[in-house]
Amino acid sequence: MNRLWYLVGLLLVLTGLVHLGVFVVDGGPWEGAVSWRKPFTFGVSFGLSVLTLTWVSQFVRIRARPLWVGAFAIASTVEVALITLQAWRGVPSHFNMETAVDAAIARTLAAGGGVLVAVAVAMTVAAFRAGPGLAPSMRLAVRAGFATLLAAMVFGAVMIARGVVEVVTGNQQLAYTVAVTLKPAHAVFMHGVLLLPALAWLLARTPHPEDVRLRLVRMATWTYVMFAAIVSALALAGVTLVSPSTASLLCAGAISGLAVGVLTLGRLKQWQSGDADRRPTAS
How far apart are CA 202 and CA 224, in angstroms? Predict the structure, then answer.
């Protein structure tokens, strides 16, 4: 089943990239409730999330793992499909109760978000029950990654709840305003489940001993969490210093830079060891 979910994730990413091309050709606003940005960003983000969950879930002991991953992949596909449909119709996807069709789509999107939260909760609980088979560095990365994914889902649920409250009270336009304020917090936590385990996986392919790898993963985790916490606190206070995409890129760049630096140092260490082995010894 993993191949199927990997294919689903890849198709979602490609769908997002196609809509980036549509935006380039068709133009229109980048921000706002109706924009080609939405099918692009949601397609790429959900696609990466499906690919990530399919891979990282293999490090987690959970019953019926294919069903949990499948539920996440199917819910993600429905989310992207409905958001894309509404973009082509030229109407908002979330909090849109203008017609019976729009209301049904908005409710389906909210229900799909509930499925994603449930999977994130189950995977996070299972990650903290991980058995002794994993290296400590990977165990920490997986646990921290799923914890940050759960935090992202919580912020997403709060965004939807705040928007729904405004819609119910008759303030549909205000729903988009109050929901968007938490987007940086939601975005910055979203892909820690990919970045941290990927770092641990790369470190495992260096000559560094496990205690060094564990320290590096711990440092990356604290850096990631502290940055995300600052962005989240500012978002809750109504202050947005960086856009959601910029916040995500900064986190990804910091951890990727750490990974590149560690791999480079590891390669240099290997070369130095090889040179030392080739040096002639005194007779």
Answer: 17
